[in-house]
């Protein structure tokens, strides 16, 4: 893109940033600093010796000094990541989050319908060993005995590391122009639908809902959000806008990795619940005492709170 067009498209934004730098709210300050560094990187790549690059360098330096002048703010950087940066990105990429949810939900419905019309489909998706083990546990009167069959600490470490690995794979697959991430969401959605309908066929749907979704609310939601991160990165390749495709990809990858990193505490909590609590065979009251707050937290942090953060940034 020609320098004149790049400057024309962004000059009003830069001037408003410059006017507000001294009075701006700290949350918005950090977000605008990120935007400026993206623009500066682009200018340094394509117009290294231009006045535009020098102007952006000076403006970015002002924001840098403003951010790091206050040591207390700097020490709270860890908190600010979850308090502002991630929610702001979730609002910014709410369409990708919605698409990731729809892909997973529709795939789950397809999986359930497939099992309803073909009993062998469950074995194809879940595997003969898992189906045979579950049927044997049903005959023994404990269809979900798999959750109590191993040491809880080792189970926690294995489940948590596997879930984190799955989320990062789901994200990284976005490199294939979002198609890889979509594939991961489809396969996970189909497995979810197949399993839940298999539980219905075998007569323990209620038990599975009250047991599996103890950790499933956090786990499945986190995979969907990881899918959102993958779509963010993939779409940056598909739709680079005014940036070069490589520069757009770098920005998309950076935004996506922030979203994925924010999921790690949720996977740890989900792994803890699955390893130490799911095996306790809780009654309906105690199950709902975990499931409902988990669901409300997911809705609040990933949907409601990002809107509030965005509105707050607009008023700053």
Automatic annotation (TrEMBL):
Pfam short name (any one): SpoIIM
Keywords: Membrane, Transmembrane, Transmembrane helix
Chain ranges passing through the membrane: 97-116, 164-185, 220-239, 259-278, 284-304
The keyword 4Fe-4S is assigned to this record: no
Alphabetized InterPro entries for the sequence: SpoIIM-like
Highest taxon above the source species: Bacteria
PANTHER family: SLR1478 PROTEIN
Protein name from the UniProt record: Stage II sporulation protein M
Species in which this protein is naturally found: Flectobacillus rivi
């Amino acid at each position: 893109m020609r320098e004149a067009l790049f400057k024309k498209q962004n000059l009003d934004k830069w001037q408003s940033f410059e006017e507000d730098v001294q009075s701006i709210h700290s949350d918005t300050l950090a977000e605008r600093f990120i935007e400026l560094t993206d623009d500066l990187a682009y200018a340094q790549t394509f117009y290294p010796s231009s006045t535009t690059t020098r102007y952006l360098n000076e403006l970015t330096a002002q924001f840098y000094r403003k951010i790091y002048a206050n040591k207390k703010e700097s020490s709270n950087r860890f908190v600010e990541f979850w308090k502002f940066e991630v929610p702001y990105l979730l609002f910014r990429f709410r369409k990708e989050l919605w698409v990731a949810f729809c892909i997973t939900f529709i795939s789950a419905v397809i999986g359930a319908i497939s099992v309803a019309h073909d009993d062998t489909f469950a074995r194809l998706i879940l595997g003969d060993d898992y189906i045979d083990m579950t049927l044997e546990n049903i005959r023994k009167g404990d269809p979900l005995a798999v959750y109590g069959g191993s040491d809880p600490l080792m189970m926690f470490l294995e489940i948590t590391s596997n879930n984190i690995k799955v989320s990062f794979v789901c994200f990284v697959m976005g490199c294939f122009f979002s198609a890889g991430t979509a594939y991961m969401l489809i396969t996970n959605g189909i497995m979810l639908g197949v399993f839940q309908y298999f539980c219905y066929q075998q007569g323990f749907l209620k038990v599975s809902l009250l047991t599996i979704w103890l950790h499933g609310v956090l786990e499945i939601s986190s995979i969907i959000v990881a899918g959102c991160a993958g779509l963010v990165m993939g779409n940056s390749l598909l739709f680079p806008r005014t940036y070069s495709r490589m520069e757009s990809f770098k920005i998309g990858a950076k935004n996506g990795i922030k979203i994925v990193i924010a999921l790690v505490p949720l996977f740890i909590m989900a792994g803890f619940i699955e390893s130490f609590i799911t095996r306790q065979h809780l009654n309906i009251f105690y199950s709902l005492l975990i499931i409902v707050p988990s669901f409300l937290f997911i809705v609040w942090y990933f949907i409601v709170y990002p809107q509030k953060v965005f509105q707050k940034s607009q008023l700053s």
